Structure formats: C-alpha cells, structure tokens
UniProtKB/TrEMBL annotation:
Residues 1-34 are annotated as: Disordered. It holds the Pfam family THUMP. Residues 142-247 form the THUMP domain. This is THUMP domain-containing protein. CDD domains: THUMP_THUMPD1_like (cd11717). GO terms for biological process: tRNA modification. It comes from the Eukaryota. The keyword Phosphoprotein does not apply.
Length: 276
C-alpha cells in the first residue's frame, strides 16, 4: 500500500520545473523586447551626471518634442495666409478625424535607449527629424537665451547622422557615405577638424579613426583645428559608431553642451581642444 500511495503522489518536481521554465521564458521575452541601437539608426547621444540618467531621459524627450512642435508651429504660421477659406477648415477637420481611426497612430518621434554604461543615453529619432539640425537649433536658442535654462540634467548632446555596429563596420565606406555631401559634391576647398570620442570600445583607437577619416576627406581639403569650416564628430561607444558633421560654431556653442551654455565654465578652467 505504501508503495502504491507513493506512486499516486503528483510529480511536483515536474510541475515546479515547468513553472520555472515559464517564468524564465517570460523574463527572456522581456529582455528580448528591450530596445537596442540598430545599424541605420540616427539620433542623439545625451550625457548627464551619474545617477541622473532617468531624469535626463525625461528632460531630453521633453526638450526635443517641444523643439519639434515649436518648429512646426512656426512653419505653419509662415505658410498660412491671413484668411482661411471653408475648404481649408474642412480639410483640417477631415485630417484630424483620419488620425483618430484605429491603426492610424503616429510613429514615435523619439525613443530613449539606455546604454550599458552610466551617464550616457541614446535618443533614437524618427527619420522625419534631422538630429544635426535639431540639436544645432536647440543650442543656438540656449546660447541666445541662457537665462531660460530649459534643462537641468542634460549635458552634452552629440547628434549622429547614422550608426553602424563596430564588429562589422567598414569605417572608410561608412565615412564616405556621411561625408560625401559635405566634401565631395563640388564647391570650394574647406577647412576641417576631426573630433573622435571613444568609450568602452577596444576595436578602434583614436589615431586609426583620425587617419581613416582624414583619408576619406582627401588632400584637397585642409586641416584647421581652430578656424574650421566643418568639424567631423566620430562617436564610438561600446559596440556602435556614429558620425555627424557640425558647422564652424560648434566650439562657440560649447560643443553642444547645454550645461555649459547655461552656466559657462570660466575660460581658465575650460578644457583645451583636441582632435585633428
């Protein structure tokens, strides 16, 4: 009888293992759904003080959203005349109704992607929004109106025109795609500088990056670290690399550092320029 009773007992071990597997699968699914940076993304790397990443993300998303909304309002104001006829109003109402229908949700303009290192976050932009242009406009506004102080936690913003994975990237080919409109599409020779930033990546070193980018630019353009026409920003962080091009006011705009634009560091304490 004792043996029969033992055989009749439910196999709790199998049941518990099944529950653990289900729980583990759920955890893995959540991890698998975590947003990651993909090749072809563009956007902005944003830095902040350690431990302030969450506040920085919320602040950056608000800042970019408000800037896009403001730019759109200005554009609509310039395009619209003083009188709106009935047809224009009807068209606007129809457009708003279409937007309320299921399946017509607007694409996400910005998406924050946390990095596996402190103090830095990537904000992915929708392809309809130019990260280089938006960051430049935000910094111009901060430079002209430092008393506004629209941000407390956001520090440096580094826009990237496109991103590649460092394990498979051909840096020379990637740079050619990004730099062609600026250096190889006609026009007079330009003075340029290169500013690489490398964090958590051992595949590339600073000298290699500078030489590769300089070779792509070509000898018809000259290097000028202080009085450049264009500055090439190469951002290598962990397993991704992004490239962008900024204008000759990049240093004037404190290298796109909002904290510096709102509360400038005295010149005697400011870091020296570095690059090529």
């Amino acid at each position: 009888m004792a043996g029969a009773e033992k055989r009749a007992m439910p196999d709790n071990t199998t049941d518990q293992s099944s529950k653990r597997r289900k729980g583990g699968g759920k955890w893995q699914k959540q991890q698998g759904n975590k947003a990651i940076i993909e090749s072809g993304d563009w956007g902005v790397f944003v830095t902040c003080d350690m431990g302030r990443e969450g506040k920085c993300i919320a602040e950056a998303l608000d800042l970019f959203s408000q800037s896009v909304e403001s730019a759109g309002s200005n554009s609509r104001g310039e395009d619209s005349g003083s009188d709106e006829d009935e047809g224009d109003i009807e068209a606007q109402i129809k457009k708003e109704i279409e937007g309320l229908k299921p399946g017509s949700a607007k694409p996400r303009q910005f998406q924050a992607i946390r990095m596996e290192m402190p103090c830095v976050t990537f904000i992915r932009f929708d392809k309809s929004i130019d990260p280089e242009k938006l960051v430049h406009e935000v910094c111009l506004d901060a430079h002209a109106n430092p008393e506004k102080k629209r941000c407390r936690w956001v520090q440096r913003m580094t826009p990237v025109r496109s991103i590649r994975k460092t394990l498979s990237v051909d840096l020379e080919a990637f740079a050619k795609d990004i730099l062609k409109p600026h250096f190889h599409s006609g026009g007079p020779p330009k003075k340029y500088a290169i500013r690489p930033t490398i964090r958590g990546n051992n595949k590339f070193n600073r000298d290699t990056v500078i030489k590769t980018i300089a070779d792509v630019v070509g000898p018809e353009h000259s290097v000028d670290l202080k009085n450049y026409d264009l500055i090439i920003l190469v951002h290598l962080i962990q397993n991704v690399v992004g490239i962008s091009v900024a204008g000759n006011d990049y240093d004037k705009l404190k290298r796109y550092n909002l904290a510096e634009l709102y509360s400038p560091t005295p010149k005697s304490q400011a870091p020296e320029n570095s690059g090529f």
